[in-house]
Write a structure and sequence with these properties.
The structure is a single chain. The protein is of the alpha/beta class and 930 residues long. It is built from 33 helices and 35 strands. A hairpin with a 5-residue loop joins strand 30 and strand 31. Helix 2 crosses helix 14, helix 16 crosses helix 17 and helix 25 crosses helix 27.
């Protein structure tokens, strides 16, 4: 039975109709028959509001049954409720190509003894023993939920139903969604899918309980912290990432102002079935078992900084549920629904379930341009083919022998070393699909470890040192490796950060170091123990399939949060073939790689790999002398280095002697990627390598090679007035399409190629055989960046914006998140920045938008050569020069001593940070340093 208005609430609480973000028309009191009689439940229900707008039951796409945890209430789901209503008005954007946001009815009951639902009579305070019959058990709460659903969803309902839960409400919602017996005897509803935020459905008694719960469950502390005082409530509300606003905290506290209102909080904690003897342990086991056998699809949204629901609970759910996807928020926490806007992934996933996942399977052999993809060839194939060769496979200038000579290894030795290490991995428990974090500097050690991991079928997890300690820690935790291979710095990071995975060192360490670092062995220990043994597949451990994951490469974080990019063995095979074709690699070729992504691929393309004496993760450490000495030692014919590395090579060229200069003159191919190469820098480099073809490929971690431009073309286009940076024509196996931008800078669902794409500012969309298989644990990012077309190809939205010129050359003008949207229409910042950059007084510039999308003010933030100009509003003379340099209407010119750029490439500007800073300056705030 439903009361048309809120009938009663626990005494001494605020009226929920007055709470921020809460619409009074959502609130209902529902009387439902539970296991112990008729009870009153306060329910958030958007059904009546939809009906008031003329949206009847047949017009609703789906119903979401949302269950809060402890100590929250249905207020937690206000954003989802609002999004469901806005979807009915067409005001929710799911992203390009995602279709219309579904119209959903949200039903979110307050559990008994919680929120504004009926309070139970308690004869005693709750205890950790979990034996008090006056407090609700897990099983009772599942039946309570079904009782409410039975009252609110009629037998004539035709809309699919999806469960949604958080915290202990996640267990209840998952238990309800998978328990056919409960539903068949009550509501009769058959859920179509399950969504859960941070929760847990199983906990081994031998595992330690998370620290916050240990404290809450500690004897008399339980009742004191949960019922007698609001300590448990306050502690939970302090977990916001970022911190919750004061009025939001007040809203969550509204139903729990007095001790008499907090009995359910204590009862919920007391019902945590942490031990085998707990009265809810069997109910928890039943939920866990049901999830292991269900065929229902599931979406997990996970705040990684949760101190209660740790990563082990996430891993359990991912292994337990067969049809599951996850989006992990690395910087969000326990209160994920407050920390981040989860309405778009929730509605997007429901849309996919309603439509059915009928996306075509990409055809990896489909022709792109003039050439088809070659046959599959795993990365270790050259090691097998050349296992008898005495020619050099590697030269590592970072390692010297007792006589000062650089380390060299033949193909035969490298092949046997990789075989022995791979046998060691297998004998010590590494299995196909195991993730292996590689915390080793590029060179001999990383090459041997990487190829052995791939040979066993492991998945190499590679993180960029430029992420810093915190960034690397987040990335590794996200990947959840079973193994960590490291040198001392990496192993120390793993130890201090308590990172997951069995730890292996590169070199065998002394007993004290092994104990301190928690080591299980060493790769060179394996190489010695299993020397002479040839690795081969077995029935239990066959070679990996081409479609199996081979690597997770984390982006540098310079254009947004670092993401794990998944590559299969097939994708890496296609990449190496493309490298061989682009670099014209033949037997005897020698590749000197001062650019981390390619430092590992030499053995896979059959080239002698030369590692210069530098830190590959810090490109600017490459000097002209170290480059030349490496070229001499490795008889180098090709060099791959980033622009930052080449800049330092040019700056240190005066240190070269005659022999070293002669060695550089033997280079026939020079490639530079990672950032645009300015023509002046290109000319200076060519003075050192005058006989080399200079190419600058365009790519990204998601697809390392997309297009290419040589120095002849760079000079030919120098006088053009095209906006942005020219990156040449797409490779013959790459298709590049354009998704035009609308007035507000949003990408179109429609893709244009060829003449239809000329001179249109658009997002760049690619399809290559060597691009990513997807992002790791980022469901929503995968959903929004993947495009499937009728030709059976998979496409990827790069996030870069630009245009094609009439000659089929691609120009880059920025990123989608950098688009500026004044009232005259969206544009990319790259072109105007190029105009202003030509001023002799300017060292660096960034164009940002300040204000609401569609009416943004255009602001130029400049870093002048004159370091004496004070930060803030620019002097009038400088402002006049900047405005005169370009044709856009600049509202303000601001000066900063430093335009922030990424460490790795020294070129990618942090425009979001500058936009935030500019907004504060223009609002009259204190001018702070960047």
């Amino acid at each position: 039975m439903i009361s048309p208005k809120p009938a009663q609430y626990p005494h001494s609480v605020l009226d929920p109709l007055q709470l921020p973000g809460w619409d009074p028309r959502w609130s209902q009191i529902v009387e439902a028959e539970t296991c112990d009689g008729t009870r009153q439940f306060h329910v958030l229900d958007t059904g009546p509001m939809l009906a008031d707008r003329g949206i009847g039951p047949d017009d609703i796409d789906a119903i979401v049954i949302a269950v809060h945890g402890n100590p929250t209430w249905s207020y937690l789901w206000r954003h989802i409720a609002q999004a469901g209503l806005e979807a009915a008005q067409g005001n929710v954007e799911l992203g390009p190509g995602a279709g219309r946001a579904p119209v959903i009815r949200v039903i979110a009951p307050d559990q008994l003894d919680m929120g504004f639902s009926e309070r139970l009579e308690h004869t005693s305070l709750p205890s950790a023993a979990g034996s008090s019959s006056s407090y609700r058990t897990l099983e009772q709460r599942i039946y309570d939920l079904d009782a409410v659903v039975a009252e609110l969803i009629s037998d004539s309902n035709k809309a699919p139903v999806f469960s949604l839960g958080h915290d202990w409400g996640g267990i209840i919602s998952l238990g309800w969604a998978t328990d056919a017996d409960v539903r068949s005897s009550g509501s009769g509803v058959e859920p179509s899918g399950m969504i859960s935020l941070n929760t847990a459905v199983w906990h081994e008694e031998s595992d330690p309980i998370p620290a916050p719960l240990q404290a809450a469950l500690a004897g008399p502390v339980l009742s004191g912290s949960t019922v007698v005082t609001p300590a448990f409530l306050d502690t939970t509300l302090a977990l916001g990432q970022p911190a919750l606003a004061k009025d939001i905290k007040t809203a969550y506290k509204a139903p729990y102002r007095g001790r008499q209102d907090r009995g359910g909080i204590g009862g919920f904690v007391a019902d945590i079935p942490a031990t085998e003897s707990h009265r809810s342990r069997n109910a928890l086991r039943k939920v866990a078992n049901q999830l292991s056998s269900t065929e229902k699809p599931a979406l997990l949204l996970w705040g990684a900084k949760d101190p209660v629901f740790l990563d082990r609970y996430q891993h359990d759910l991912l292994q337990r549920i067969d049809d599951v996807v996850i989006h992990r928020y690395n910087t969000a926490g326990h209160l994920l629904a407050e920390d981040r806007d989860i309405s778009v992934p929730v509605l997007g996933w429901i849309r996919q379930q309603l439509d059915g996942d009928n996306r075509p399977t990409p055809d990896l052999t489909a022709a792109r341009g003039s050439e088809a993809v070659g046959d599959y060839s795993p990365l270790w194939s050259f090691l097998d083919q050349w296992s008898e060769s005495s020619t050099k496979a590697m030269v590592d200038m970072t390692i010297n022998d007792a006589h000062g000579k650089p380390f060299e290894v033949t193909w035969a030795k490298l092949s046997s070393m990789v075989d022995a290490i791979a046998v060691g991995f297998r004998e010590n428990g590494m299995r196909p699909g195991d993730r292996v974090s590689m915390l080793v500097e590029p060179g001999r050690d990383l090459t041997a470890a990487l190829y052995a991991v791939l040979r066993v079928g492991g998945v190499a997890v590679v993180t960029d040192a430029g992420l810093g300690v915190d960034g690397m820690t987040r990335a590794i935790r996200s990947a959840a490796p079973q193994w960590i291979i490291g040198q001392t710095p990496g192993l120390s990071l793993a130890r201090i950060g308590n990172l997951p995975g069995k730890r292996l060192s590169v070199k065998t360490m002394d007993p004290i170091a092994r104990r301190v670092l928690g080591l299980s062995g060493s790769i060179y220990g394996f190489a010695s123990t299993y020397a002479g043994q040839q690795y081969g597949p077995t029935a239990e451990q066959p070679d990996p399939n081409p479609t199996d994951d081979a690597a997770i490469l984390f982006t540098s974080g310079s254009t947004g949060p670092a993401k794990g990019v998944r590559y299969t063995h097939q994708k890496l095979s296609a990449l190496t073939q493309r490298l061989q074709h682009t670099l014209h690699v033949e037997p005897g070729s020698s590749l000197l790689a001062g650019f981390a992504p390619f430092a590992l691929l030499g053995p896979a393309i059959g080239a002698t790999s030369v590692t210069p004496n530098m830190s590959v993760t810090k490109p600017a450490t490459l000097t002209a002398k170290s480059l030349a000495q490496a070229a001499i030692a490795g008889d180098t014919t090709m060099i791959f280095a980033s622009p930052a590395a080449l800049r330092n090579v040019v700056d240190t060229a005066h240190e070269l002697n005659t022999e070293q200069r002669t060695a550089l003159e033997q280079i026939s191919m020079l490639l530079s990627a990672g950032a645009p190469v300015p023509v002046p820098l290109m000319n200076e480099v060519l003075e050192l390598v005058p006989n080399a073809e200079f190419h600058s490929p365009y790519g990204m971690t998601e697809s390392l090679l997309i297009s290419d431009i040589d120095h002849h073309t760079q000079h030919a286009i120098a006088g053009r007035d095209d906006r942005g940076v020219c990156v040449g024509k797409p490779l013959d196996v790459a298709r590049v399409a354009m998704a035009p931008l609308d007035f507000l800078g949003r990408s179109s669902d429609e893709l244009f190629e060829g003449d239809n794409a000329v001179n249109k500012l658009a997002e760049i969309v690619i399809s290559t055989p060597h691009m990513l298989a997807g992002y790791d644990k980022l469901y929503n990012t995968n959903r929004q960046t993947r495009v499937d077309s009728v030709d059976g190809l998979q496409w990827h939205r790069t996030g870069d914006i630009g245009h094609f010129d009439e000659h089929g050359r691609l120009w880059i003008e920025g990123r989608t998140q950098h688009i500026v949207t004044p009232s005259t229409g969206a544009f990319g910042p790259g072109g105007p920045e190029d105009d202003i950059q030509r001023l002799p007084s300017i060292n660096r510039v960034a164009i940002v938008g300040v204000g609401p999308v569609g009416t943004q003010a255009i602001v130029a933030v400049v870093e002048p050569h004159d370091g004496d100009i004070k930060p803030g509003l620019a002097p009038s003379a400088l402002s006049d020069d900047v405005r005169a340099a370009t044709d856009i209407d600049i509202a303000a010119v601001l000066v900063t001593h430093r335009v922030p750029v990424d460490i790795r490439h020294n070129s990618k500007i942090n425009r979001p940070l500058l936009a935030e800073w500019a907004e504060k300056v223009l609002a009259g705030g204190k001018v702070t340093a960047l």
